[in-house]
Amino acid sequence: MATQRILDFLATRRPEGPCLVVDLDIVENNFHAFRKALPDSAIFYAVKANPAPEVLRLLASLGSNFDCASVAEIEMALEAGATARRISYGNTIKKERDIERAAALGVSLFAVDCVEEVEKVARAAPGARVFCRVLTNGEGAEWPLSRKFGCVPAMAIDVLVEAARLGLVATGISFHVGSQQTDTNAWDAAIGDAKFVFEALAEKGIVLTLVNMGGGFPTRYLKDVPAAEAYGRAIFESLRRHFGNRLPETIIEPGRGMVGDAGVIKAEVVLVSRKSATDENRWVYLDIGKFGGLAETMDEAIRYPIVTARDGDLMEPCVLAGPTCDSADVLYEKKPYPLPITLTIGDEVLIEGTGAYTTTYASVAFNGFEPLRAYVI
Amino acid sequence: MATQRILDFLATRRPEGPCLVVDLDIVENNFHAFRKALPDSAIFYAVKANPAPEVLRLLASLGSNFDCASVAEIEMALEAGATARRISYGNTIKKERDIERAAALGVSLFAVDCVEEVEKVARAAPGARVFCRVLTNGEGAEWPLSRKFGCVPAMAIDVLVEAARLGLVATGISFHVGSQQTDTNAWDAAIGDAKFVFEALAEKGIVLTLVNMGGGFPTRYLKDVPAAEAYGRAIFESLRRHFGNRLPETIIEPGRGMVGDAGVIKAEVVLVSRKSATDENRWVYLDIGKFGGLAETMDEAIRYPIVTARDGDLMEPCVLAGPTCDSADVLYEKKPYPLPITLTIGDEVLIEGTGAYTTTYASVAFNGFEPLRAYVI
Fold first, then answer.
1. What is the distance between the alpha carbons of residues B174 and B136, in angstroms, rounded to a whole number?
2. Rounded (10°) CA dihedral A278, A282, A287, A293
3. pLDDT digits (tens, 9 = 90+) for B80-94
4. Is B367 within 8 Å of A155 when comparing Cβ atoms?
5. A Gene Ontology biological process annotation (chains A, B) (predicted)?
6. Residue B151 and residue A327: Cβ atoms within 8 Å?
7. d(CA B233, CA B10)
8. What is the pLDDT of residues A110-145, one digit of tens each?
9. What residue ranges define each of the domains in chain B, with the CATH number in brackets?
10. What is the ipTM of this complex?
11. Which residues of B are part of the catalytic machinery?
């Protein structure tokens, strides 16, 4: 929801063009909610969700750790005040020279999901700690989870054995249950897989200590989602069930769940029209679309709440589209979006829950439109 | 195909990281081919395909006109040496204040597809020329064409009548047969629709003069495509058939067809791995993906030719993915891509036919990766 601070900012500053406004108070609340929900887990904020310096500085000051996808993100986290010990290079796809750069910056925790990546880390960051990502099925997640990251648990055993053999510290297992995961039990099967790998390695004399439980914590879009406490409870119970009294260290990597509901995009209605006299749906065109920051509407995956000043009026399903000359730049068409029948050209709309995966997804200059501006307040 | 000039540039300069190299000689050849194929049509280059200043300057010097999607693109075309008379504001979705800005820059030709847009143009650019876009079905096009732009021909009549009533010059009809259109006859039905609207308006005393036949001209990816001459012949015959001896002025708006085959992306293999010991396909990860400039691999729509130094070796279908921590950043998976079985980490690959719709589609900084760099030679 748009907070009063965001509404006041927009009313006072009246920025021209589409923009994102992020309320740091919400980010801080979310951080505390995660800490309370999973008090024994270290929080590694997924920088890719929103790398605004103000967000990173706030989280660094609150004691957050950082999950980074690239050397540039590592540098941003350091710049924001994190120490290298608080940074994980969580991308399983790294150039060897980037591993070397990260190691030179002091980073010593790396994600891997195959022997080939282990070999790179062993050469470029000798003695570093590595965790191996295992595949999960992503059921219950709204953003599609592919098989891109991770290997099957049986292969994770070989990967970590090889890591140990090459002088790395085989630290543990990671997984990701899929972004915008609304099933609090989604973590359970993967925690079971982690335990399986822990036992298999223990038999080989390698003691794992870490379970990186990834992200996936949802933000509220149109439907209610379980609160952080519900996830905390389900995850803790699952850890207890699988690991008994010998609980491993754990990490969580919230991104969307940390910043999603802290941001609101202000946009403008550029055109409202029909394609024929008998057209069933009106077309509503905004000054932001798939290439301007709303990439997560791809396949209509994420459905953002949209607020207008006319929401008391009669609603009618509309096709919603962006402003570029690209026919793929349509946000919601298969499932049209209900908007007030009185909505008109020039109206302002607020697109809520847009604090994550918007600014950096925006294209450089597609159709000459500048990237999404952001104000962090 | 990578030209010798591009290969020499890469061999000499050895740029670090993924980059696009565009050979201006090819752009010039393409311009001449279009001019020869459709000698009576004015060429309006679709700036959005690749707005590199060098490309725009070359085309301006060759006498090209420019189809612009935004005020920023209009400014780029002017900067490159085009006069305002040679610019069309071809986006049917415009803010009124942007129409005003364009008019202030001297632009006097605007696209519309509804009465609402006509009203904006009448207020913000009194007396301007407008053409109305009509819907086509996009059959035969490889990049999805939605119903986003245009109205049915019957509605186009009302739109242009209203334009005339509001003091605008109702100039003609435009349409787009869909990007990467491989059927040379795809223009025919739309030219017939244009003729229908011409006649209907003539009965009302409004004489249309222009048919804007849009873009859609393909570039060669993996499959051969008809040459510009074949399109020229089919289009000219269709114009003759529908308009007889009273041929209208015509415009074409090539974008992909002008620059697509002039560009090659140099990328690097970051990782080659399998997900399990029995995995059927290897996964090949590049340092460029869907968010770094290859957005047109969305739904595996555009299938680029990929060249490696090992192409003589045995080939095997691979899943091809990008370098970001986003599970949606997979290029080809439903239909795996054949690559040499010897392809290995650190190898360079050339992704051909990438001169259009790559650089400006690239995200600002997703996962901390910088946008695609481009060299125009």
1. 10
2. -120
3. 999 999 999 999 999
4. no
5. putrescine biosynthetic process from arginine, via ornithine
6. no
7. 38
8. 999 999 999 999 999 999 999 999 998 767 777 666
9. 90-254 (3.20.20.10), 261-376 (2.40.37.10)
10. 0.94
11. 325
